[in-house]
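It would be a great kindness if you could assist me with a short task in structural biology. I am sending you one protein, given as its amino acid sequence and as whole-number tokens for its backbone shapes. I would ask you to consider whether the tokens describe a fold that such a sequence might reasonably adopt. The full record is reproduced below for your convenience.
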Amino acid sequence: MKPEDFGIRDGINEVIGTTRWKEINSAPIGIRKRGERVWAVLYPGSHTFENVKHTGMLVANVIHDPVVFAISSFDDLSDDNFLSFDPPILKDTSAYAIFHAELEGNTANLKLEGGKVLKMEVRAINRGLNAIIEACVHGTRVQKDPSLKERVKYYLAIAEKCGGEREKIATEIIRDYLNI
């Protein structure tokens, strides 16, 4: 069993990380992989960081729903989005990987402990989904750098042009959260 079995390859892999300590948390996370090393950068003070600090566990949900990315970028998903709570696994996930996470500062070094592929599907790259992910990445940083709103708008325009119905819904969610 290796990260590649769950779709996690070299580079930055955008997943929805789920954790559980006092409460369930969901957030987009870039799982980084270079060779045998797998890690994620977590932000001190975030629910994800606190949950990992107390439990040493992170579940990477490989999912392709832009609405899930949009909501979880700015808020926690509701309980009805979960297939399981222990471990926290999202509905509609194609695969999930359970990692033991050891924190060193704000870096979580990840060791694969288990997981499962739930759907084997062939998917073409959708530029709208990719644009939603970029909009979410920059949108979560707008509080620290308000000039990033322009970059978010740029990616939302691509999502509206290139995406399907779910990307258009995600666009509206992001606009609402960021008041754009």
In short: The longest helix spans residues 148-162. The chain has a mean pLDDT of 94.
